[in-house]
Amino acid sequence: MRTAAIVALTLIARSAAAQGWDMRAAAAYLDARQTWWSAWPTAARDHETACVSCHTALPYALARPSLRAALHEKERSSAERKLLDDVVKRVNMWRDVEPFYPDQTVGLPKTSESRGTESVLNALVLATRDAAAGAPSDEARVAFDNMWALQLRRGKPAGSWAWLNFHLEPWEADDAAYFGTTLAAVAVGTEPGGYASRPEIQERLGVLRTFLRQDVAMQSAFNRAVLLWAASGLPDLLTSAERSAIADSLFARQNPDGGWALARLGDWKRGDGTTLDSTSDGYATGIVTFALRRAGYASNDAHVASALAWLAKHQDGTTGKWVATSLNRQRDPATAPANFMSDAATGFAILALTYRSP
Description:
Layout: H1 2-16, H2 23-39, E1 44-45, E2 49-50, H3 57-70, H4 78-92, H5 103-106, H6 110-133, H7 138-149, H8 176-190, H9 202-214, H10 221-233, H11 240-252, H12 282-294, H13 302-313, H14 340-354
């Protein structure tokens, strides 16, 4: 059965291999969405900055440098400059800016959750910028210092960070602290200049590893996919056998068309009682394929090739985006927030399609 499945996936890949995708349309979509997000009143934060959202701003920050390189653009877009300026401002004013969600207006314990979440996201955004530039920066060093200062040190959560929980899957829910800690590991492994080997962070890094390894088997397939991505920058985070086991579990969830469905990467139910979409989507396919590529699975691997073919085939020809839908409720497609999951899908589809092995 496994051989037949691989043959089928290979045929799918070959049949769609000639279909390309429009990088400029993808860039235009991402730039427009990030421009809208940074100006949306709901996203506004202290000192004329905007929230670094897991659905729109973070995928944008991760994917736009890769897309800029593929398009041979010489300068950052205005949306990217604004995002980076906001992050640098908040990093440098860390003690003076209000958290994303203060206790006084949102309730306990949102200040600590906001600080923990933002500290990780700031470090990851600036590490991504530094990696594209090929050199570490003072701003990223400060961001990492802020992040390590908020790492939890006692009990079962030791090694992780307080993380925003609005009961929204998959980034702000009960198990999202694990997701957040994998992003911290990604940030450490991304920052250039040998940051992951610096002596002064080894104790904190060791506790981070312990946290991520203690409950691997209990995590959702989604969290394990992000862990696989994190391990590509921190090789001793997982053993070779553990990497293979995670990859095999992801392959087992791959749909016959070559893509993945986010609904199949966790045990999730929508709060409004509507049925989750079990067809392949851009976010699940993008993030899983990117994680597999980072883990060393080549573009001609049957599973990866079919996934890349799915991504190349399923870019929306009108908007330039890849589509994904909410795990939490059915949204009105006419509203701007309905695109949140598609923002994430587009960012990670781009990362998967533009990735080149070292």
